[in-house]
Amino acid sequence: MSAVDVSPAEAISGEDFVAQYLTVRTTTERLAEPLSAEDQVIQSMDDVSPTKWHRAHVTWFFETFLLPRLDGYEADPTYGYLFNSYYEAVGERHPRPHRGLISRPSVDEVTDYRHRVDEAMIRLLETDVVDDPEFQDLLVLGLNHEQQHQELLLMDIKHVLSSTILQAPYRSSNAPSARFQSAESAPLTWSEFEGGILPVGHDGSGFAFDNEGPRHDVLLRPYRLANRLVTNGDWLEFIADGGYDRAEHWLSDGWHHINRTGWRHPMYWSQSVESDHESWIQYTLDGPVALRLDEPVVHVSYYEADAYARWAGARLPTEFEWESATTSQPVTGNLLPSSNLHPMPAEPEDGLQQLFGDVWEWTASPYVAYPGFAPAPGAVGEYNGKFMIDQQVLRGGCAVTPGGHIRPTYRNFFPAKARWHFGGLRLANDQ
Amino acid sequence: MSAVDVSPAEAISGEDFVAQYLTVRTTTERLAEPLSAEDQVIQSMDDVSPTKWHRAHVTWFFETFLLPRLDGYEADPTYGYLFNSYYEAVGERHPRPHRGLISRPSVDEVTDYRHRVDEAMIRLLETDVVDDPEFQDLLVLGLNHEQQHQELLLMDIKHVLSSTILQAPYRSSNAPSARFQSAESAPLTWSEFEGGILPVGHDGSGFAFDNEGPRHDVLLRPYRLANRLVTNGDWLEFIADGGYDRAEHWLSDGWHHINRTGWRHPMYWSQSVESDHESWIQYTLDGPVALRLDEPVVHVSYYEADAYARWAGARLPTEFEWESATTSQPVTGNLLPSSNLHPMPAEPEDGLQQLFGDVWEWTASPYVAYPGFAPAPGAVGEYNGKFMIDQQVLRGGCAVTPGGHIRPTYRNFFPAKARWHFGGLRLANDQ
Amino acid sequence: MSAVDVSPAEAISGEDFVAQYLTVRTTTERLAEPLSAEDQVIQSMDDVSPTKWHRAHVTWFFETFLLPRLDGYEADPTYGYLFNSYYEAVGERHPRPHRGLISRPSVDEVTDYRHRVDEAMIRLLETDVVDDPEFQDLLVLGLNHEQQHQELLLMDIKHVLSSTILQAPYRSSNAPSARFQSAESAPLTWSEFEGGILPVGHDGSGFAFDNEGPRHDVLLRPYRLANRLVTNGDWLEFIADGGYDRAEHWLSDGWHHINRTGWRHPMYWSQSVESDHESWIQYTLDGPVALRLDEPVVHVSYYEADAYARWAGARLPTEFEWESATTSQPVTGNLLPSSNLHPMPAEPEDGLQQLFGDVWEWTASPYVAYPGFAPAPGAVGEYNGKFMIDQQVLRGGCAVTPGGHIRPTYRNFFPAKARWHFGGLRLANDQ
Amino acid sequence: MSAVDVSPAEAISGEDFVAQYLTVRTTTERLAEPLSAEDQVIQSMDDVSPTKWHRAHVTWFFETFLLPRLDGYEADPTYGYLFNSYYEAVGERHPRPHRGLISRPSVDEVTDYRHRVDEAMIRLLETDVVDDPEFQDLLVLGLNHEQQHQELLLMDIKHVLSSTILQAPYRSSNAPSARFQSAESAPLTWSEFEGGILPVGHDGSGFAFDNEGPRHDVLLRPYRLANRLVTNGDWLEFIADGGYDRAEHWLSDGWHHINRTGWRHPMYWSQSVESDHESWIQYTLDGPVALRLDEPVVHVSYYEADAYARWAGARLPTEFEWESATTSQPVTGNLLPSSNLHPMPAEPEDGLQQLFGDVWEWTASPYVAYPGFAPAPGAVGEYNGKFMIDQQVLRGGCAVTPGGHIRPTYRNFFPAKARWHFGGLRLANDQ
C-alpha cells in the first residue's frame, strides 16, 4: 500500500457544491483506507473516537441537518442514536466513552451508509434548494465539520495504534527512512510587533465557525514572537535542566498532574536503553522513528508548554498576538496535503516560520466568547459556545489539518491536560 | 447463515490425540464463525475478553507449553506478550483491561496463527513425544483449557453484543420463534439425601482440573435438594414481593451492591412499557425475546441467588451436597451441543432435573483448596490455586458449556457480584 | 454565647504595625471562639480546611517569612510540615486532603502556638526591622493573608456544620428571628456604561495582591450592569421554568456536572414536604432558616450563574466591566463587620447596589495574568500566579469578607464547579 | 498520665448484672481517658470509627434494644440516626464513611449521654425485667457488643494517631524502654493432632455470638500446628528472600493488591536510613519503637499471611484445626488486662504458645454459616449473618481484646486486605 497522499484540497468556497462535497467526502475515505475493520472499531481512551464512528458521525450530520429537505428520504433512528455526538437538541445518544462498543453497524455497513447519504445528497444538491442561503450555510458547515473530523480521525488513530507494543504504523511508507536526527535547530530569533488597537476575528468573507466572530478591536501592547516553533532539541535541554522536576516552573494544577501521571517527556516519546539523547524514540503515524532534534516538539500539554515558556524566560502568546501577527501571512504550510502527517523542521529563512500547519500552537488565552457572540439558534448553535469553559485556545493548524481548513482567525481549543491532538508551542515575550 | 450447531463432542479421552485436538480446535472456529472482524475485537468490560483474543490465547497455550518440544519451531514473542492471560512465570503481558485495544494482529492474522500452530501441533502429535505421560497431561490440559474458553467466548460475546441499542443476535436463527411465555413452571419438589461421611473430589480416572482433588471424605448432615432450577416465574414473584427492596433478605455487601448499581432484576432483562409481567424482555444469544416463565432464571449474581433463597425460606446447597447428589447421575443435559445457547424449562419428570447444563448453579461454598491440594510446579500450577479467595463455587455447567467438559466434580468459580457467566440456582434445605 | 460581632476593622495601612497586627490576629480568634475543639478539627471535603488548621497556618506564615529576622527564634519543623499549605519552595508538607487527620497539636496547643508567635512578632515589630520596606511588604502580606483565611474559616465551618442532620448553627444568635420571607425583590434596573479605553488594575497606592497588577488599559464596548444581585426569588423562577432540566441553558461541562451530582438548586437549600415555594429552607451560619425571596442567591457555581444569565437573556459581566463600574464607588457594604454572615436584600435605591459584600460576584473572565505580570521571586511568589488556569474571577467580596479586605481591583478566583464560597451573581448585557 | 492498666475483668456471667454492666461501661471510659476531644473525633479511613462514635454507639445499643422496657424513657431520634451502625431494621442512619464529620454532639455531650443511659439502665436492672431470659440475652449481648468496640476503639485510634508525622503515642508510658531488639525468636516446633470426627462450635453454656453455633461435627485429617506465632524475625527473612517480589507466593488478588498499594512490609513498619535490619521502626500504641525480632508479626493482611505460609512450605490452619487444638487449653494470654497493648514474645516452653491474645490468627477458612445456622429474628439478627461473604475467619483474640471476651469457639472475621486489626499468623501443615 502506498503512502496516504491527500491531493491538495482547496478551500471550500465557490458555487460548485457537488464538487466540493465529493472532494471532502472522498478525502475522509482515503484517510480510512489504510485501516482494517479492526483498526476502525477501537476507542483507546474516552477522548478518542473510532475511525468508523467518525466516518458515520459526519455522515449523520448531513443526514440530520440537510437531508430532511429531500422528499422521501428516511433516516434510520438507530443510526441517529449511535452517531449523534453531543447535540442535546437532537435527542438522546450513545454514551461517548462507549463508542468502542459499537461492533455493528460494521465497517462495510458504514461504507454503505456513506454511499446512501452521498447519493441522496447529490440528488439534493441538484435541486434548487441550494439557492437557499440557509441551506448553503449548513452545507458548508457540514463540509467544514467533516474536515475537523478528518483531523481528529488521524489524531485518534495515532493514539489507538500506539496503544500496544506493536506500535504499528498507520500507513506503510518510505517516509521514515528520510529522517535523521543530527540536524541542529534553526537559531531562534524574534519578530517585533507594535501592538495598538487592532481588529481580530473573522470579517465575514468566506466560511468561519461561529466562535471566530464577531470581529472586534483588541488593545495589544508591544510584543515579540519567536520566528520558529520550539523544537525537540530545545525540549531535551528543558528535560536535562530538570524541567519536569522543579515545581517553580509549573502551574499548580500542572505540577500535580505530572506527578500523578508520571509524565517526564512529551507523549509518544520513549527511551531505549542507551543513556544519551540519541536514544529517544518517537512514535509517529509512520511508526517509531528516532527523535529528530530540529523538528518541532509535538504532543505536549498546555501545562508543559506553559512550564517550558516560563523556564525559557518567555511566555506563550495570546491568541490575539498570534492572530495579529499572522493575519497578513500566506496560509501555507505543512498541512495534510503535504502528506507528512508529522511536523517538519523550520526553513533557515528570515521572518515567522511554521505559522500554519506542523503543530497547533498553544496560546495563553482561555477559550471565551468574543464580545457580542451569540450562538445560532437550534441544534447547530451547540457547535462551539457550550464548550467555552476550562479550555485553552490553539492556533494555526497542524500537519494533519486538511488543506483549506485553516485561517488566521481559526480558534481550536483543548483542555490544559490534553496531549494527543498535535499541540506544540511558539514563544512570545514583551518588548 | 444457519444456526450454530456444534456437533456432539465426546469427552476428551482415548488415544487418538490428533482427532481430539482437531475436534476442539474446530469447535472454537465454528463458534467464532458468525462474528465479524469488528465483533471479535471489542472488550465491553474488564472481565470480558475479545473473541479474537480468546482464539489467540488458547493457541498461545499450546505454543508456549507444548511446541517447545517441536524441533525448529519459533514463537513470536510479540504474540507471547499479547496473548498470555495471567501466567506470571511466563513473563510480562498485555494488561487485561486493555485487551480491546489490540487491533493488530488482525482477525485474519489470528486465523493464520491458529493454522500455523495447528500444523505444528499435528506434526508434533505424530512424533513419539505423545508417549510421554507428562506431554499427554499438558495436551489434555490444553484441550480442556480451550473448551473453557469456548464457553467464555460465548459468555463474553453475549455481553459485547448486548452493549448497544442494536441488541444484535449472535447468530441468525429461527430458534426464538419456537419460544413462548405462557407455560407455568413445573412444580417444585424435594429430593432427600441422608448425608454421612461421603467421598468427594475427582478419583483420578480421566481428566480433571487440579482444583477437583485430592479426593477426600466430607461429613454431611441430611439435606434436601429441589428437583429443578429456580425459574423466571419464581423470580418475578420475588420481585413482586419487594425482593430487591428489603434489606432483610440480603448479605450486607449485596445490599450495598444492588443499591449502588441500581440492580432490580437479573442481567439482560428489560421491561417494555406495559405494566404486567408479559412485558419483560430478555436478551439472549438469539437476540431479545419475551421472557418465558418456565425457563430457569439466569445471569443472577451470588448476592441475588442468596437473597432469593433466604426469601424462599431455603438456602443454597453446599458444593458437596450438590456433588454427592449428582455423582451417580448421567452427565447429560442442555449443553453446547444441543445448540440452544440458553437454559431450557425442566421436563415434568420425577427426580433431580437440569443438573448438568442450563445454568451454572451457585453454591454456598467459598472456593477453597481441598485438604492436601498442591498446585503443579511451574507455570501451569498457576491454573487454579491462585484464585482461591473471595469467590464462590458453581457447579453443573450451563447451556454454553462444551459437551464432555462437565462432570460431577467440576468446580467453577466467580466473585459474588458476577452476572454475565450464565449463573442460576437450585434451592436446598435441611431436613 | 452572644453573636459574633466583629468590630469594624479598618483597612490595613498606616504605620502602627503592632496595632494592625493585633487587630487582625484578634479577629481570627474571635471567629474561632464559638467553636468547640471538635468543631475545629473536621475537614468535610478536600477543599475545606479545619478551623484549627487555618489558625495555625496563618501563624506559620508569620513564623516562616518574618520571624527568621528575630534573633534566637526557633521554629518547630513539625509545625512547618503540618501547616504549610502549598509553598513548594518551603519544602514538603502534610497532604491537603488529610488536614482532618491532624488531631495533634490540639486546639489548645494551637492557641499556645499563636501566643508564642504573637509574642515573638510583637518583639520583632519593636525593632528597627520594621523600617525595611521589604519587611513591611511581607508583614502586610501576612496580615492580608490572615484576613483571607478569616473568610475561608467561615466558609469552611459552614460546610462542616452543615454536614450532619444536626445542621448546627455556628453561633447562637437572635438574628434568624428577624428574617421573614414575604418581601419581593427590588425591581431590576440597568446602569449604562460607555466603555472605551479604560485603566484597570491596582495603581500602587496601598496594599494589593500581586495578581491585581500591573495596572493597564483595556478596551471595553458599551455595556449595562444590573442595579442589584440576582435574588432567591429570581432563582425560584429559573427553577420553576425548568432551568435545571434544559440543556440549552448550560455549558456542556456544567450540564454533565449537574446531572452527575444531581444538583437542582443552590447549595444549602433543602425543601420541606410542602409543595409551594414557602417550603424552601436555607442553611446559614445561624442555622436553618426559611428562604427569603429578596435576599441575593448565594452558593451557586459558575455553571449555574452562567446558565441563569443565559436563561435570563443576559450574560455575566467581565471582570473589567465590573471594575470600571465600581472604581469610583464607596467601598462599603454587608461585610464581616456588619456581623450578618449572610447576604442581605438590596435597598430600594437608585444606582448600583450591593457592589461590595453580600456575595462574591462570578464574572465571565477566566483568571489569567495581566499583561506584564511577574510573580515575586521566592516562596511568596507562589501566592497567586500558579493558580492561573481553569478558574473564574469573582469580584466584590461577600458577607464574610473582613472589613478593609476588599477593593475594586481585588480578584478572587474559584473553579467553575465550586459552591461553598458564597458565590452569587449580577447580570450584565450589551447595550 | 499513667499507662492504661485495665483491671482484669472476668467473663461476663453470673447474676450480678449491675456489677457486670458497670465493669464493662467503666472500661470503655478508661480506654478513652488518654484521648483529647480532638483525638476522639477523627476518622482516618472508612473502616475506622472515631472514639466518640464508639462510645456513643455502644450506648445507643442499650438505649435501642433495652431501654424501651423502662417506663418513661425517651430516646433522642437524632442520636438514633447518628449512632446506628448498620441495623437496617432500626431505620436510616448516618453514612459510615462520614462518621468523622460528626462534630456535635461534643465529647462532653457524649459523656453526658453515657451517664444518662447508665442511670436509666441501672434503674432498669433493679426491676424484675432482669428475670426475663430474653432481656438477659439482650443485656449480655449488649455487654459483649461493647467489649468488641473496646477492641475496635484501640485498633482505630492506633490508625488515627499513626496518620501524621507526629506518630503520637496513645498513652504516656514507660513500657517502650523495656523493649529491646536483640532477642532471637524461640525455635519453631510442631504439635501434632490426629484429626477425626470432632465437635466444633459453642456448646450453649455461657455467652457466645450467634455465629459460633450450632455446635456440630467436622471431619479433620491429621495435622500439625506451630508452637508459636510467626515473628518479626521470621518476617524479615521472608522480605530478604524476595517475599514481596515473587508472584509465585501470592494469591492473584493479593499480588495485584500489593503492587497497587506498594506494600513491601507489614503495616506500621517503617525504615530509617540504615540499611540493616536494626533500622526497622514499628509504630505501637506507645509510639514508635525499634522492631523487636522475637515479637509476633502483627498488622499483616490475609494476602501476606497466606503468602508467607506458602513461602515457608506450610499453610494456614483451618478454623476447625485451630479450635480443636485449643478447646482444652486455658483461656489466658496477653490480652487487654495485661496492659501491653502489643503482642509479646513466646515463652521458651513446650506446647502451643500464644493461643489467646497477642494477635488475631488468620485461618484458611472463609467466614460461612455453620450447618443449621439461623440468625435471630429482628434487628439483632443483623449481628453476624449478613457479613458472611468474602471474609476470612480469625481466631484467638489479640493484645487489645478485653479479658473474658475470648474463647476457643470465638470467630472474628475481616476481609483479606485488612491490616489495621492486629492480625498475625501461626503456621500449620499436614502430617
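qc> The radius of gyration of chain B is 22 Å.
qc> done
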